[in-house]
From TrEMBL, chain A:
<dbReference type="GO" id="GO:0034457">
    <property type="term" value="C:Mpp10 complex"/>
</dbReference>
<feature type="compositionally biased region" description="Acidic residues">
    <location>
        <begin position="110"/>
        <end position="161"/>
    </location>
</feature>
<keyword id="KW-0539">Nucleus</keyword>
<dbReference type="Pfam" id="PF04006">
    <property type="entry name" value="Mpp10"/>
</dbReference>
<keyword id="KW-0698">rRNA processing</keyword>
<protein>
    <recommendedName>
        <fullName>U3 small nucleolar ribonucleoprotein protein MPP10</fullName>
    </recommendedName>
</protein>
<dbReference type="GO" id="GO:0006364">
    <property type="term" value="P:rRNA processing"/>
</dbReference>
<feature type="compositionally biased region" description="Basic residues">
    <location>
        <begin position="497"/>
        <end position="507"/>
    </location>
</feature>
<dbReference type="InterPro" id="IPR012173">
    <property type="entry name" value="Mpp10"/>
</dbReference>
From TrEMBL, chain B:
<dbReference type="GO" id="GO:0005730">
    <property type="term" value="C:nucleolus"/>
</dbReference>
<keyword id="KW-0694">RNA-binding</keyword>
<dbReference type="InterPro" id="IPR036612">
    <property type="entry name" value="KH_dom_type_1_sf"/>
</dbReference>
<dbReference type="InterPro" id="IPR004087">
    <property type="entry name" value="KH_dom"/>
</dbReference>
<comment type="similarity">
    <text>Belongs to the PNO1 family.</text>
</comment>
<keyword id="KW-0539">Nucleus</keyword>
<dbReference type="InterPro" id="IPR055211">
    <property type="entry name" value="KH_PNO1_2nd"/>
</dbReference>
<dbReference type="Pfam" id="PF22891">
    <property type="entry name" value="KH_PNO1_2nd"/>
</dbReference>
<dbReference type="InterPro" id="IPR055212">
    <property type="entry name" value="KH-I_PNO1_first"/>
</dbReference>
């Protein structure tokens, strides 16, 4: 165990000695850290009889697991410490009894603090060190801060109205002092003593502790750590106040205002402290102050979230209600804006109307000319009467029309058309005769008609005025020939022969045209003969 | 045996006699088609067509005998018209056409209309009864028949003229003579009349259809 302790102590020393950047890079320092944490764990073991672990198990364990182990040990420890604090608060006499113990413990506390110096940015060690820090702090508070408690309690009583477990003016001041020290490089420790004022650190260890604590907090860039430390410091002090948590503690309106005023006071203090400390400032300094304030304003504006109009695409949910009404929005219009009606516009319109009326140039809508309609199909009239033609004739006509349209007999419609055209021609002729200057005789239309050689009287009126038997035909039409006609008795032999030969020739010619008729049907003949 | 380097070629023996030339037969005449047997058709004469047959006998006889070259006679005892092919009947279908022609006359068609059957191939006769379309009894039937014919037969004539068909309404039987499509149109208009549509409606339909048929 002693050897382990030694190794653990060495590990801690080593951790303390290593440079902070080494923690950032993964290196063998993790092994050392593990050893150190094991050592610490075993150290704290006697104070916590309830812990299930005898030693911290680090071999092959994850950071989370190691942290869990530490947490398991520390939780009951914290509660026991709180209990102890309460006890001491009630009976301060007992503190002195533990005074010796505290001195011993302080050594270990120092040792603890040393590793707290290290940068906590290493992932593996971060959690462990935090826990260690808290543990260390808890332990120290157990012994040493009891002395500070009284003094701080005094301060507390003064500032009860402002402070609560979340906010400590003392801590705020300390933080601000640190910042200043960082910037201006003033003697921090002296300042510390001044600002602290009332606190009388009984032992150097306390100072060391405080400084180191502050340094730790200073070096720690995590505000959380700092806060955590502050909480840790406050936890025990305000243990009594936990039960009395009020709304004002959380959401105290007063607090904010006072905080601001306190801050202003501190800033003024700082400003005053920062500069030569004289009340009257030179013009240059005044200008500088103004610039500073401006700079701060601008910086603040930059840091704050932008106004919704500067945020690019903003939907209705992202901006306050009815905020678009207050802003003069500019967007493109697709349509032309409606014309503004002024007196000039109306006057011009009226002038145009008047001139148009005078000209009678109205822009009336004209009916569009309809397309040339197809000539109405000849609607075939439904003939109600019995058709005079038989079906065969109907088809015959149809066939003839298809094959040979020229010889097709005129249809009923054609005849009507012919009659109509004839009537029209006659009318035109009469009108032309009336209108033309030069005489044109009637056109001769060849017409054929049969004339019978009947006495004219038969064809004319029934009761003739005068009886006349003039033939319809002219004498030339009756007989066409020369005048020389011989009687039968006057003919000579040769003339008679000539006459007979002519007759025969004529007869032969006629018979050649008309061939002999067929024989009659035998069936009927036989039938007839049969009957007979 | 390598006497001859050339292949031995057996001279093919000439065929005994040259093959006979392919025979060319003239197309069979109707008379010879059934092995020289004569074909008959017998068409019964209903009693109501007896007198019209007597009156129009010569009009039937002449085209059948002269143009179709089919023997035709009336069997008075059996009350049938008999048709027979002759030796010079040119085509088999002549007999059938003549039979159809005579049958059409027996149904009630006129001679000039029935002759179309002889002259054209694509004409048919379709018959149906009124009860095939709709079951009608008593007065309804009479009214339907009246609707079909129209006043003075004008509806029937209108259908006939517009569709180039001939219609015979014999009591409850209806016969239609004409080309296939025309028969269809006439039948549909007749059926619509039987079903009860007014004549005016049928006329309008006929007007539309006849224009299309005429094209």
């Amino acid at each position: 165990m002693a050897a382990v302790k030694d190794s653990g102590f060495e590990a801690l020393e080593k951790l303390k000695s290593t440079e902070p950047p080494v923690f950032l890079a993964p290196s063998s320092i993790s092994e050392v850290a593990r050893a150190a944490s094991q050592y610490l764990f075993t150290k704290l073991k006697p104070h916590n009889p309830k812990s299930p672990f005898d030693e911290l198990l680090v071999d092959g364990f994850d950071a989370e697991q190691i942290w869990q182990q530490i947490d398991m040990q520390s939780q009951p420890l914290l509660s026991s410490l709180r209990h102890e604090v309460k006890r001491f608060a009630k009976s301060p006499k007992e503190i002195r009894k533990i005074g010796d113990l505290a001195v011993e413990a302080s050594h270990e506390g120092d040792v603890d603090e040393m590793d707290m110096d290290d940068d906590n940015d290493v992932e593996d060690d971060d959690d462990e060190l935090e826990a260690d820090e808290s543990e260390g702090e808890e332990e120290e508070e157990d012994g040493e801060e009891e002395e500070e408690d009284e003094e701080e309690e005094e301060e507390e009583e003064e500032n009860e109205g402002i402070e609560d477990k979340f906010f400590k003016i003392k801590d705020l001041e300390d933080f601000l002092e640190e910042g200043e020290a960082q910037e201006y490089g003033t003697d921090y420790k002296n300042k510390k003593g001044l600002s602290k004022g009332k606190n009388q650190n009984l032992s150097d260890d306390d100072d060391d502790y405080d400084e180191e604590d502050e340094e730790d907090e200073d070096e720690d860039e995590d505000e959380e750590d700092e806060e955590f430390g502050a909480f840790a410091g406050d936890d025990n002090e305000d243990a009594d106040n936990l039960g009395k948590a009020r709304y004002e503690d959380f959401f105290g309106g007063k607090k904010k205002e006072t905080k601001r005023t306190m801050k202003d006071a501190i800033e003024d203090e700082e400003a005053g402290d920062g500069n030569q400390g004289t009340e009257k400032l030179s013009t240059h300094e005044k200008e500088l102050l103004k610039l500073q304030s401006k700079i701060e304003q601008m910086e603040k504006a930059n840091l704050d979230p932008k106004h919704w109009t500067m945020q690019g695409e903003v939907s209705a949910t992202k901006r306050p209600k009815n905020s678009a009404l207050e802003v003069d929005l500019d967007f493109e219009h697709n349509a032309r804006p409606p014309p503004v009606i002024t007196e000039e516009v109306t006057a011009s319109l009226e002038d145009m109307i008047k001139s148009r009326i005078i000209e009678a140039r109205f822009d009336d809508v004209q009916r569009a000319p309809s397309l040339p309609t197809k000539s109405k199909r000849q609607a075939k009239e439904l003939d109600d009467s019995k058709s005079k033609k038989g079906l065969a004739e109907v088809y015959e006509e149809e066939y003839v029309q298809k094959s040979n349209p020229a010889f097709a007999p005129a249809t009923f419609s054609d005849e009507l058309k012919k009659e109509a055209s004839m009537l029209f021609k006659k009318l035109c002729l009469k009108l032309d005769a009336l209108s033309h200057f030069h005489f044109t005789p009637k056109p001769v239309i060849e017409e054929m008609s049969i004339q019978t050689n009947v006495p004219a009287i038969a064809m004319e009126e029934v009761a003739p005025v005068a009886v006349s038997d003039a033939a319809m035909l002219a004498p030339e039409e009756i007989f066409a020939g020369t005048g020389k006609i011989k009687d039968e008795s006057e003919l000579t032999q040769e003339e008679r022969k000539r006459r007979r030969a002519k007759k025969k020739r004529k007869f032969k010619a006629e018979s050649a045209n008309h061939p002999v008729k067929k024989a009659r049907d035998t069936n009927t003949e036989i039938h007839n003969t049969g009957n007979e | 045996m390598a006497d001859s380097t050339q292949m031995e070629v057996e001279t093919a023996t000439k065929p005994a006699a040259p093959l006979p030339t392919k025979p060319i037969f003239k197309p069979l005449k109707a008379h010879e088609m059934s092995d020289g047997k004569v074909q008959f058709r017998k068409i019964p004469v209903p009693p109501n067509r007896y007198t019209p047959l007597k009156k129009a006998w010569l009009d039937i006889y002449t085209p059948v005998y002269d143009q179709m070259k089919v023997d035709i006679r009336m069997n008075l005892k059996a009350r049938k018209v008999e048709l027979k092919t002759r030796h010079d009947t040119p085509d088999v279908s002549n007999l059938q056409k003549s039979a159809d022609f005579v049958h059409a006359f027996m149904l009630g068609f006129d001679i000039p209309d029935a002759v179309a059957l002889l002259r054209m191939d694509e004409l048919y006769v379709e018959s149906f009864e009124i009860k095939d379309v709709k079951t009608l009894k008593g007065e309804h039937l009479s009214r339907a028949i009246g609707r079909l014919s129209g006043k003075g037969g004008k509806t029937k004539f209108a259908i006939e003229n517009s569709t180039k068909t001939r219609i015979v309404i014999a009591d409850t039987r209806i016969h239609i003579l004409g080309a296939f499509t025309n028969i269809k149109v006439a039948r549909s208009s007749l059926c619509s009349l039987i079903m009860g549509s007014p004549a005016g409606k049928v006329y309008s339909k006929l007007r539309n259809v006849s224009a299309r048929l005429a094209e």
